[in-house]
């Protein structure tokens, strides 16, 4: 087996390949795309970090490639869809930088509290300014953690050791699990108003971009301090700038930025801002860890068929999965649809399958549903392998049921998502191998194509409702691709689902919501 290491990798990882019998490893970094495409046909495994772009063209040239391993978490540089189509496994190392990022978060919080960088610069300039750099203690302060996953959980442990009170916001974890970790689980508005320090540990997505913005800063207590060692863009830097300028925020510590490298970032005008150049994973231990992990994972797969941390492989043989793939896609979309429509903290996911083809592979369908449920939040960190683990660790109950036949359909997947505030159900079928449909949302019978941008509208059964929605979208130059209506009874409540050709801006959604007889509108992306 031949392995190509296309980005700088710790020698410990390379050495594992070299010592493994039957493995031949080449280290060739900084290859131009055309150079990589030219040599990739001879390799069975490819190891990258963030530097090499594994594009569709490169994957199509990779005649013998069986696995792509990312030494790290993010997979923005790998065309996963193309790899999947070619039967190439894509895997990453999601836990490799957990400790280093958690420690860096604490480092940044302490440096911010005690003005360490500013004092050092002053000292190097020959000054002795003790009064100027008066700091604050973190002891007995409240730390608010947005996102209680691996890194957020490790930050909580360290903060508790410093004698801090820790509150957390995470709609994907149960309060019992948070309590066991010593964290009080609260709603986001409570976290904002109570915290002396706020740190974010969520992936960057459409839902989390500018999650902390002007409105959130206004809800915070005076003198709060902000830390971001997760992803640039989660915090609106323009809104933070204004909050610091007004004195609402006492200081900020950033390791990541909306624009990197941020040489002209306005935040650097403030002495109360501490910054580092994306060093969260930059420890010797983390780099060795991800290198060793990915080497072991690739060897296990190529020599033993053991798959770990794969982002595109289910729990069945490839031949079986090929037949099951359309059902998995449908299951994912049902989970994603409900995840984006429901409100509150998730408590339970119920999955009911009908039809012999899918009942015998219930575990795979369940994994697909859970992947869909969690993907809007976790992005590349969730996959068929770890979705059930995420549910279990976060205290979310998963209930499976199955039957051999249905009155209306030969094969049917029904999903119900229960939270502490509401619940939602949806059912889907295949009318053809590539013709998936959602046939029910709650008690409304519909005929929805689950793809692209969608609007789900709840309103009274009155004449002209659909027309007024169309007028608003038309003014915004947004085309309606498909539409379905469902109602329980004439003159009662009705649900309209629209497939649209582009994302609907927030102000247009707001205008639709304010329209007469419309009670709610939600946007979904599948």
Oligomer: single chain
Which strands sit side by side, in order, in the main sheet? 8-7-6-9-10-11-12
Measured by DSSP, the beta-strand proportion falls in 15-25%
C-alpha Rg (nearest Å): 25 Å
Top CATH class of the largest domain? Alpha Beta
* Total count of strands: 22
Calculate the terminal CA-CA distance, rounded to whole Å: 38 Å
Mean pLDDT: 91
Pairing-aware structural class of the strands and helices? alpha/beta
- CATH fold category name of the largest domain: Rossmann fold
The general outline is globular
The main pleated sheet reads as:
7 strands, parallel
Tally of discrete structural domains: 4
Number of helices: 18
CATH superfamily of the largest domain: NAD(P)-binding Rossmann-like Domain
Name the poorly predicted regions: none
What is the name of the CATH architecture of the largest domain?
3-Layer(aba) Sandwich
Structural commentary:
- The structure is a single chain.
- The chain has 526 residues and is α/β, with parallel strands linked by helices.
- The protein has four domains: 1-93 and 281-312, Rossmann fold, CATH 3.40.50.720; 98-275, NAD(P)-binding Rossmann-like Domain (Rossmann fold, 3-Layer(aba) Sandwich), CATH 3.40.50; 314-442, D-3-phosphoglycerate dehydrogenase, domain 3 (60s Ribosomal Protein L30, Chain: A), CATH 3.30.1330; 447-526, ACT domain (Alpha-Beta Plaits, 2-Layer Sandwich), CATH 3.30.70.
- Helix content is 35%, strand content 24%.
- It contains 18 helices and 22 strands.
- It has helices at 11-19, 33-39, 56-61, 80-85, 98-114, 116-124, 150-161, 175-180, 188-194, 214-219, 237-245, 284-304, 318-341, 356-359, 362-378, 387-393, 465-475, 506-513; strands spanning 2-5, 24-27, 45-48, 67-70, 89-91, 142-146, 165-169, 184-185, 197-200, 224-228, 249-254, 273-275, 346-354, 397-403, 412-419, 423-432, 435-441, 444-448, 453-460, 480-487, 493-500, 518-525.
- The strands form four sheets. A seven-stranded parallel β-sheet has the order 8-7-6-9-10-11-12, with helices on both faces.
- Strand 9 (197-200), helix 10 and strand 10 (224-228) form a beta-alpha-beta unit.
- The two termini are 38 Å apart.
- The model has no long low-confidence stretch (mean pLDDT 91).
